[in-house]
Description:
The longest helix is centred in the last third of the chain and has 15 residues, at 107-121. By secondary structure, the protein is α+β, with helices and mostly antiparallel strands. A hairpin with a 4-residue loop joins strand 4 and strand 5 (44-49). The protein has a single domain (7-153), classed as CATH 3.30.1330.200. The chain is 18% helix and 34% strand. The model is unreliable at 159-163 (pLDDT under 50).
Amino acid sequence: MEPAAPQPYFLYASAIFADRAPHQVTTVLGSCVSVCLWDSKLKFGGINHYMLSFWNGEGLASPKFGNIAIEKLIKKMKEMGSENKNLQAKIFGGAEVLENMKGGFKIGELNIKTAEEILKHEKIPIVGFSVGGKKGRKIIYCTNTGEVLMKYINKGYPVIYEN
């Protein structure tokens, strides 16, 4: 019996996706960050896409924030049978695509740091990354293999999707 072909899925900002069925998850990142988790034992993965680094406790605890998005992704993977010892991570995004705001607040840099700190705390190794810089990224995450395809997006040019 042939394994199921990966199904396409587009991941919007502030969202999380994990499934045991194979998917090719596409997302587009500027200063946002995606953490791709892969379970090397169970052979499935999950991904998030967050916009800001840290939820400060006010308002809704949304996956818009890195600390919430990463915790929820790990929890979802565990609910599907994963254990931290079998997980590995890849991190993408965190570009400084917006002009620096007053005070030098760098959204992309903070988003990257949040991912690194939480994954270290959870003892999940980072096995691949493409972060920082000045260009956005389009990624396609293959949840059944852990492979991530990435290309840079030039500032000021729209991304065109084709079926």
